[in-house]
Amino acid sequence: MRKSNIDNLWSLGFMRICMANFLLFASLYMLFPVLPAVMVSRLGISTVQVGSMFLVFAVGMFLVGPFHAYLGDAYKRKHVLVYSTFIMLAATVGYLFADTKLLLLAVVQGGAFGLAATAGITVAIDITNSPRRSAGNMTYALAARLGMLVGVGVGIWMFQLKGFSMVVYLSALCGIFS
Prior knowledge:
The protein is mostly helical. 85% of the residues lie in helices and 0% in strands.
C-alpha cells in the first residue's frame, strides 16, 4: 500500500533532520546575546572588537558558500553536515579558553555553521518527496527560526542563572544532539 504525501513529509528521517536543524540553530544563537558582554568583561576588549567578531563570523559563513556545492558532490552530504557541526562545536567550546584568537574562532565557527546550515537543507531536500518539497522547506526553515528564538531565550536565561560556562556547555550539548 502506498503512503500518502503527508506521511512522507513527516517521516522519521525528515523529523530528525528538522530537530537537528532546530538544535543547530539553538546551539549557535545561545551564544549570540551573551558573548559580547562576556568578552568585554572577561577579556577587556572593546565593543568595536566584539562587533568585528560578528562581522568575521558572517564573512566565514559567506566564504564557504562556493565550496558547499563541491563538498556536497564530492562527499556524502550527511558527512559534510556532521563534520561541519563538530567543527562548529569545537569553535564554540574554544570560547571558554580563548583570550586571544577570537577572530579566528569566529571565522571557523561561521564557516562551519554556513556549511552545516546549507548541508542540512540539501539533506532535508534529498529525503523529501518532490510533491512535498515546498512544505518540507517551509517546515525545515521554521525549525531554524524556532531554534534561533529558543536559543536566544535559553542563552540569556542560563547566563543569568549559571553564567557563561554553562551557556557554552549547553550550547555544545545541543550541537552534539543535533
